[in-house]
Design brief:
Layout lengths: L6 H24 L11 H6 L16
Length: 63
């Protein structure tokens, strides 16, 4: 059964398979993302930020 497989057939099949995988990978990378990123509410993020944890990291000027 395997004696009919020549080196040319094996190599061309391998090259065709690798090319198909590269094409499929390229199409997967170029497609649009499934989930749209949610909008971030800047006001809420600043209001709810844990500023009390920054007392040893960043000097906060009062004023």
């Amino acid at each position: 059964m395997f004696e009919t497989l020549t080196t040319e057939v094996i190599l061309s099949s391998g090259i065709a398979g690798v090319s198909a995988l590269a094409l499929i990978g390229s199409l997967v990378m170029l497609r649009a993302p499934r989930h749209k990123k949610s909008e971030v509410d800047i006001e809420a993020a600043v209001r709810d930020a844990p500023y009390h944890r920054l007392h040893n990291v960043l000097p906060v000027k009062g004023g």
